[in-house]
Amino acid sequence: MAIREEQPGDVEAIRALNAAAFEGDDEARLVDALRAGGGLSLSLVAVDDGTGAIVGHVAFSPVVVTRPDGTCATGVGLAPMAVAPDRQRAGIGGALIAEGARRLAARGVPFCVVVGHPAYYPRHGFARASAHGLRWEHEAPDVVVMARALVPGGLDGVTGVFRYRPELDAV
Questions:
Q1: What does 82-121 look like in DSSP terms, one character per residue?
Q2: 43 exposed, middle or buried (CB, 10 Å; 0-12, 13-18, 19+)?
Q3: What average pLDDT is seen over the chain?
Q4: Domains of the chain
Q5: Against a cut of 0.90, is the pTM above it?
Q6: Alpha-carbon gap, residue 7 to 117, rounded angstroms
């Protein structure tokens, strides 16, 4: 399996993958909206070496944290991540997260947030965002709102409320 950045010819395959993985088109429409609005900080695909099929996808988009004093910090949010149903539980999602974190850190992106499964994302370096003084702008159980530093000290002084791009609210 190879991991690479999304290319223009991947759009339909990414759409189909997200629809299959999530059993509906909300996430597929979200990726399309982020792409159309220039809101993809990084979009990676996992490609099967044998068939050339796209078997995984992860999107990262900008988030803004508003601190209690009104100043802001920026990072990225992970959403969505999809793996072909017949390839799940094979490490593809973890490989996409690791490669995304590596590439974003190389760009100097300080942190990443995710609202996701509390048994999955901690295996990939995420911890409760509340431990860092962060909370999502929407109501959600504390255990599903997570963050991780991408560079040393990337979450230092990053407290307050984080917001994803408006495309995430529209889906």
A1: EE-GGGTTSSHHHHHHHHHHHHHHHTT--EEEEE--TTTG
A2: buried
A3: 95
A4: 2-170 (3.40.630.30)
A5: yes
A6: 28
